Write the structure tokens for this entry.
Amino acid sequence: MSVATLVRSAQWLLRCLSLLERRCAHCLAPFTPTRDEAFCPRCLPRFAPYKGAACPRCALPLPHADRKDGPSVPCGHCLADPPPWDDIRVYGLYEGVLRDCLLRLKFSGELALAGPLGALLARHLQTFPPETAPPDLVLAVPQHPTHLRERGYNQAHELAVALCRELRLPLRHDLLYRARRVSPQAGLDAAQRSTNVRGSFAVATPDLAGRHCWLLDDVMTTGSTARAASSVLREAGAASVTLLVMARTPLR
């Protein structure tokens, strides 16, 4: 076993123990929670949700828009090609401590971070007006079985488990699946990402007819993966799809 692997294993163990030892899930500093916070008073404000202006259809941050002017208008891409989901809820931007934690969850196997992050998203959802139609089920964007065997877990599913536990919602992992494995999206432009994931999702059973679904993913960059998955859900008869995203990549 390499030194790097040993270091990662030790970090993962420390972060698992941090939840039992009342240590911050991010910086591991000991603290006394006032409720059931997983992050210390120093780190918690750095996890504040994004409240700036954003496209109402794809949640792309609009840094030059003024929220005082009322609801944002859709971005040019969404006006030209509306996304297949009915609504979108994003927790924060893919930067700072949120990005750091999601990278550690995704690539370093620090599964202890999924619970605190999923709980943050769940509590953020409770700040919105009540849904006209509560979800019948929650789904996470799935991984191809080969990819899942290689990594050992699906970070989107782990976040969904935490969210559903917090909100007491049914999580289904047997409906949406990857019909084929795709190349990594990193490094591809928007058009290449869309082509890469086209036809990569499928629905196992016709259980979605008339159902109101929440679809959760950890990070949204161009939205091509979410578009492909949401389109399959709508084609399978889902009455509505609300996209939930832990972090949205801003424009660079």
Observations:
- Residues 117 and 200 are 27 Å apart (CA to CA).
- The longest helix spans residues 3-20.
- Helices lie at 3-20, 76-80, 96-107, 114-125, 145-151, 155-167, 190-197, 224-235.
- The mean pLDDT is 85.
